[in-house]
Design brief:
Blueprint (H helix, E strand, L loop, with lengths): L9 H6 L3 H23 L11 H6 L3 H17 L24 H14 L4
Helix pairs in contact: 2-4
Length: 120
């Protein structure tokens, strides 16, 4: 479970992903949104990834995570792949996480992508 943001821009980040990782990003972002929604409805609920670093990094920024999910889907469709996932409705004003733009975060994501696929 990881959301890959090798760059501070969501569009640039998802355009940098290969087919396999882009497809998984749509699913993993949706899973994070779903677990966040379940915890919001019931703080005592047992949900997957409740303490996972990927969930922690998005805590308090659900609209931004939904935007990331939507950008992943849009890139998926633009590449010509069939989409079966829904786009999330978004508010007009989306607060981005504080770590967006922190090159240490983005560099670590680039490093993880290189580790997973040296051709990245």
């Amino acid at each position: 479970m990881q959301t890959f943001l090798p760059y501070p821009d969501f569009v640039a980040s998802v355009k940098a992903l290969d087919y396999r990782r882009l497809g998984k990003q749509r699913v993993e972002a949706m899973q994070l949104v779903n677990s966040t929604n379940k915890l919001a409805a019931n703080p005592n609920a047992k949900v997957g990834w409740a303490n996972h670093p990927a969930r922690t990094m998005w805590r308090g920024y659900l609209p931004a995570l939904k935007l990331y999910h939507n950008v992943c889907i849009q890139e998926w469709v633009e590449r010509g792949y069939n989409n079966t996932m829904k786009f999330y409705d978004l508010p007009d004003d989306i607060q981005m996480p504080d770590w967006i733009g922190d090159d240490r975060v983005h560099a670590s994501h680039r490093s993880n992508l290189l580790r997973k696929d040296p051709d990245y």
